Automatic annotation (TrEMBL):
Keyword Chaperone listed: no
Pfam family, one: Aldedh
PANTHER family listed in its UniProt record: CYTOPLASMIC ALDEHYDE DEHYDROGENASE (EUROFUNG), SUCCINATE-SEMIALDEHYDE DEHYDROGENASE, MITOCHONDRIAL
Protein name: Vanillin dehydrogenase
Domain Aldehyde dehydrogenase stretches: 33-232, 261-372
Gene Ontology molecular function terms on file: succinate-semialdehyde dehydrogenase (NAD+) activity
Keywords for the protein's UniProt record, in alphabetical order: Oxidoreductase
InterPro entries for this protein: Ald_DH/histidinol_DH, Ald_DH_C, Ald_DH_CS_CYS, Ald_DH_N, Aldehyde_DH_dom, Aldehyde_DH_Superfamily
GO terms classed as biological process: gamma-aminobutyric acid catabolic process
Amino acid sequence: MSLVAMSASGTEAKEPVFTVPLFINGKEHHPEKTFDVVSPATGKVAHRCGASSVADAGAAVEAAAEAFKTWRKTTPTQRRDIFLKAAEIMNSRREELAGYMREETGAAKPWCDFNLNVATDILKDIAGRIPTLEGSFPAMMDPDTSGIIMREPYGVVLSVAPWNTPYILGTRSVAFPIAAGNTSVLKGTEAAPRTTFAIASVFHEAGLPNGVLNVIIHEPSAGAAVTSAIIANPPRQEDQLHGQYGCRAHHRGARWRESHADADLQLAADQCALGSFLHSGQICMGTERILVHKVIKKEFVDKFRASVEKIFPSSAEAPTLINSASVDKNKKLVADATRKRASVIFGNAEAQEISNTRLQPIAVDNMTPEMDL
């Protein structure tokens, strides 16, 4: 028997949709304007998120600037203990945190677990490094003079992190500045706001003082205005950008793979398959192109096909991408390449999947420079 909640009028009552708040000066902040966050795994609205305004962004910077006055004076051991506590809390809340990431990004459970494992290790590693921040008394050319080198925090740091590895890149983007005595405004991704908010929640629960870490998230159309306002704000001293989106050239050199004539072809095939299609290929250092010596090409291609099928079987549900626009873009790239005489050696870009955010792995051969791919 199923029970359905009914309103006083006799109609079915709907549960209120959760709204992800901003996090400013140690408190939740709920802007009037919100936007939908659609889960790529289900195609449905997972929740809503408060849309940061220019004024909200300014408030976050001001809160960070005020907190910097006292945070910069904390001792290394005080900061270390907060980081170790944050690592403990993140590990204890891993099922909850992984659930946010799965829902918002469509990531598989192993990728969520990997994110949380690495993020926890980052916190522990940085905690151990905090006491090593020190100055020095260098020898001077003039024996009658002396010098002191002091390491001082900058101030307010703007951190920007993407959705593809949100716990790793989000945690890293704020942890290093905060560990050194800075304060931070984390500009989270609109694709995974609850995941981003969870990072601040972990730090706050660990005892990080109000204002040291602030989180703002804006709708896509407000990106330029909000970001420009933060950069122009006088208390902000430094910027950190993490991830491939918007700074893709930084990773371009790492996205090629080569297989030489004397290579272990099975190992190469397995690693190229993982590098290409793990997390639906949405990893900053993911493999985009494979260069193979002509002597071993046929054997490698056969092994590569088998490796992809073994790791990402075509009989299973197709991997999930962050949104349907990403699927459409990939299909157009493959269509352009095949029109210009490339050949598809694995997958079918025209296959109908259970949702418009899914796409089976596709590999293309005989590429030429005039192809968009």
